[in-house]
Amino acid sequence: MTRQDLILAVLERLNVVGVGQAPAAEDIATVGARLDGQFSQLARRGVVYVQDADDLDAELIDPLATIVASACAPAYGQAPNRAGVIEAENTLREMQPGDGAGRGTVSARYY
Description:
This protein is mainly α. The protein contains 4 helices and no strands. Residues 104-108 have low confidence and may be disordered.
């Protein structure tokens, strides 16, 4: 999945475009401008690291779209979906290798 797929999923969540409709250029720009900042925040907080926005795992699209849609909601006269963001972040943490909290497993040896 690509950055464009994610942008379209965000716009669908915001009810800006219907399924199968082409989004307006200004809507693509509005959402696209938020993506990198949201990816940085998620990485900094240990939720998920998006290495390449043009090569996203399909399973990441739904939770990422929920998070980005909430960040973009005020631009479309909507309230952010804080409960949805919490659930989406937890889903992303569970998808990561390790202990489910966004942290990898560290092995220890006892002598």
